[in-house]
Amino acid sequence: MRKHSTPARTPDRLKDRPTWLLGRAVARSSVLLTTGFAAHGDGLRGYHYRLLASLEQWGPVSQADLGRDTGIDRSDVTAALVDLESRDFVVRDVDPNHRRRKIVAITDSGSAALRKLDEVLDSIQEELLAPLTPAQRRQFAEIMPRLGDEGEADVSPGGSST
User: Fold this and answer.
1) Where do the DSSP E strands lie in 4-131?
2) Lowest model confidence (mean pLDDT) among 11-25, 50-64, 139-153
3) Cα–Cα distance measured from residue 145 to residue 89, given in angstroms and rounded to the nearest whole number
4) Taking residues 49-70, what's their average pLDDT?
5) What CATH number did the domain enclosing 114 receive?
6) In principle, which of 4, 95, 130, 142 could form an S-S bond with 31, CB 3.0–4.6 Å?
7) 3-state class of 102 per DSSP?
8) pTM
9) For the chain, how many structural domains are there in total?
């Protein structure tokens, strides 16, 4: 497996800064995701997972709304949907109320593929969090949303985005 690039040396004034530490964690996470999906995702990638997960959770939606919901650029959504459609994981039909709009829905095959990708992603998560104890993992899951959402994450008991 390809390792993330680790600097040979890090200046003392930088090594304990949260932005540096988060950047290193993001770099490691990115490599784990890329290599994990490449090795076990049957040609699918993280953005395919996001699209399928969104469709399964929220149901059929226009391509434009799917792009907005997932934060994926419209042209990238179209290319990814062409790939997913060729695998029979999604269907795209013309919206009868707006002939220029396509409505996307996940198929049973797409739901089965999503369950397999869940397993791939679970193993990636396990590898990423391996250095942490169970208590540290819970603490990490409670703290990180606060940083990712500009401190406005749901901090109520049980509040989580994933």
Assistant:
1) 61-62, 90-95, 98-106
2) 139-153
3) 31
4) 96
5) 1.10.10.10
6) 4
7) strand
8) 0.81
9) 1
